[in-house]
Specification:
Radius of gyration: 18 Å
Largest sheet: none
Order of helices and strands: HHHHHHH
Structural class: mainly alpha
Oligomer: single chain
Distance between the termini: 69 Å
Shape: globular
Length: 216
Amino acid sequence: MKTILFLHALAGGISLIAGFFAIISKKGQQLHIKSGLVYYWSMMAVVVTGLVLGVYTTNIFILTIVVFSFYMVFTGRRILSTKKEISPKSLDWFFNILSLLIALFMIYLAIVNFMRIGFSGSVPMLLVFGALLLWMVLQDTITMKNKKFKKGAWLLTHIGRMSGSYIATITAFLVVNVQLKPQWIIWLLPTVVGTPLIINTSNKWRKKLTPVKKKK
């Protein structure tokens, strides 16, 4: 199990570095494409080793967060292959339904723990991440059912999902290496800081994708 833990930490470190270069590089350039590819596969390694660790330690908390991270990375890259035509496969629906169940379970755990210990411990994290995952799943369900994107939506989704997964990676790094009470502050701080940055970037791209109306 020490080997799995080492591989998990190694993959997490690689994803942090690769993700950083993917974020700072210009979209479409080779650096962005290659670093993004390294980031994707290193995150897949994080997910697989995380699942093993979660099952071995019977830690439901770890398993739910792993699924949350996986869904963002998987859909963030998957959407690049469907930007011209949406044709959801059985695999897409499988992970969509699985993630829906996990999101509802996270919210359920948050409510149960809230009634037991109040708004402390893992309650804030489970509630926020569960709600975010539920929102993403429902958004994807509508898109796959309609089989069409709004103009430029695929790019904005790609930016949001990959950036969100990077925030999750930073969160995991901080949780392991930074001691702060209450711990939920560490869990949510990267999300609080990173979300406005993602929104700002998405708005910039949305403006670029929106055609300028000519004055009459």
